């Protein structure tokens, strides 16, 4: 008699990881309705709004890895605030213009031999990103096309729903076959010799539960997509194998969208994110926001109350000799790794 | 090497959804020991006690949908208090006399163009139902034979264990084949344009975990039985396919029990609920109650402390124009839906 | 399309329950590096350190069942403190010299007709064991070769990672086939007519989640290994079927280790525990300890703050007539059971 439940268990999960409508949106109506905001291609963040759907896209655009500098943090907050002022928008898709990296986390150059004045300012800007995302009146959907380690994982967890690319056969974008990659996600701070701050650690606890979070925090675990799905660190995993837009679709899109976001807009992860964003946008905003406060207001209040202490602790932790040594070792290892490629 | 765990996983779950002893109780000893309380058929709540087993049944009986009015709320509390005073009783089965609806949640007529005096009184009575169920010395087993949306889901979550009917082939009761139905359960408040109060939302968080609760609260998700089992919103799902009491059993029962509760008493959900109730009744009451306080006293204290603020917030939220419009729209939609049937 | 996830689900779990490297350590380098501490065979606790690996073993050694007396509690704390002062050690394996019992929990003789002076002292020593384990700078791995009921389960939950023996074919140790046994784990206090104290109940909530914890606390559930794995009460289950060290290995080991710990050192549970301990030992200690504080400092502070009240409540609860009767009944039942064997 095990079969019924088992198949229901499988169905439910398989629904989750291969459910998107197969680009019924080939007609491009969604993209046609996208209006490009004032952000230019060189902006740290690109944003587009689709007022008909009530959905906006906010794409991080700081090559090569969307590592979070003071400036990128501020750009995210500014862009989110802009979207927030538009009463027609209910949902935001948080994405990256980089097809293989969502965000690499903190910009390590902010941490090594840091400037006394800039370091607390930098940390404050990261806190602000969390506060603005986690407490937003908007429903925020993370479209995690690429890697999301450390603070990159925090960005995703601060959203309302997480969709991750699951690797697979490699996708065809712009008519060219894109090399397959398997992204990972997790708070891997201890691998760098540092620790996630309490509010970030507790965000992981809320997301995946106490026991798995404790272990993942201690070991700095990075989860591949399917493990992330099983642990609940992401809510959906998309394997893009079956997606190949027609030449017409691509041609039409070239006129509609600037390049950095176009590739992403065509990915199935983004398609699914859009469906999800529409789902949230249809709920009465008043009721949805009240529901969000039920689960988030308490922890946000605590975090804001301990904000200064958190900054002080972080700055003094980072400035320790051992920590500085660990960070430099980590950066050297990264450099060697990228040279050997 | 995946097989052992997998089969153990399946076994455990299959145990859960097809475990009840196959009506070994055909001898009706359980029902013979049921004494009908003073409640009449027309009471909003029917209660029966079986002192030998230490188990009572408390069945909501407000047609057509057990929607929670001020009066039903008060009747639940009164009946529970009555049972509580009987030291021989350790467990209660919370059930419904309606074979397809556990409880439809708040009586919406209490919310539309509400009376200034009655609205806070009504909300207080709902809070009291929660407090009395959640903090009861009795182990309470929810026998969820039918739908349990919104506050109906809250009733179930305030119990100690939840058993749900899983649909299936349809059951034979009173010799007649009962049409199959698949009940759903969940806090679907946002679908009505309102939000579950904090204490109800936090009850969902405790029951199914933070991340699934957040999403279910935002979207107002109603779960079918198997999904509810997988998420942990219910603890057991019973498919009644194999249950068909003999003519003798039915005949005997007709003499033993008044009609509204008889049908339910014969359901496998109720049978399983009775087994579960017996299990709890066998534990040392002192130890069991002390255990219950460990996990519940804190949140109950918080809820009681913020009770007045909760009432004020609820009343002012409900009285907003947009909310009133949403509620009226919802009732209109319901009316159309029932006419078209 | 269910297959990929399903197989990934199975793989992950099967990885967990049959993952240990197949005793690549047959060379005994690990055991050669073990230095026996001052503890003698007759000590209540045996400890060994391997400074090269950064790992220590702390094995409870109070026959017949490692039941926690005032003296065993104090010995655990003393031994842990000793290990703690060695800066080369980052991880500890908490084990038992008894191959079928991890720890039977509280020594019931401490509870029956207790001495007024000793009872609070005893309870304080148990609190101290929890505080020292749960808040330790060391990563502690529980090697649960045998039963772990009640406070034995608490010991395991206070560690950072739990590996349990899963029964199976029976293992070959010292060249002799060891009889198979299937250990169980859980807070079964209510089965004895007592209740786990709040801090222990809340530890279970953090470990397996609110809803499963509530039920397990109420019914006093003891979980067999696979159920414990599925619920998250342990993190890994090892079936020892394939382990049979060579005669040389055994011979070499006889010289290296005193008897009580030798058998355990050869078990696959211990092997896996050692691998896990090494994993934690490789993380930057500063970062690892900071991470541990993120999830544990709050609940530890609360527990310490309510320590006296907890002791008072426990002592008065235990001294109640009903509770004393329940305990005596339980001990009688145990005696009968062991006679009938």
From TrEMBL, chains A, B, C:
InterPro entries: ClpP/crotonase-like_dom_sf, Enoyl-CoA_hyd/isom_CS, Enoyl-CoA_hydra/iso. Gene3D superfamilies: 2-enoyl-CoA Hydratase, Chain A, domain 1, 6.10.250.170. SUPFAM superfamilies: ClpP/crotonase. Pathway: Lipid metabolism; fatty acid beta-oxidation. The keyword Disulfide bond does not apply. Keywords: Acetylation, Fatty acid metabolism, Isomerase, Lipid metabolism, Mitochondrion, Transit peptide. The keyword Nucleotide-binding does not apply. It comes from the Eukaryota. Pfam families: ECH_1 (PF00378). It catalyses: (2E)-tetradecenoyl-CoA = (3Z)-tetradecenoyl-CoA; (3Z)-octenoyl-CoA = (2E)-octenoyl-CoA; (3Z)-dodecenoyl-CoA = (2E)-dodecenoyl-CoA; (3Z)-decenoyl-CoA = (2E)-decenoyl-CoA. Its main location: mitochondrion. Coiled coil: none annotated. CDD domains: crotonase-like (cd06558). It is found in: Mitochondrion matrix. Belongs to the enoyl-CoA hydratase/isomerase family. Key enzyme of fatty acid beta-oxidation. Able to isomerize both 3-cis (3Z) and 3-trans (3E) double bonds into the 2-trans (2E) form in a range of enoyl-CoA species, with a preference for (3Z)-enoyl-CoAs over (3E)-enoyl-CoAs. The catalytic efficiency of this enzyme is not affected by the fatty acyl chain length. This is Enoyl-CoA delta isomerase 1, mitochondrial. The lineage of its organism: Eukaryota, Sar, Stramenopiles, Ochrophyta, Bacillariophyta.
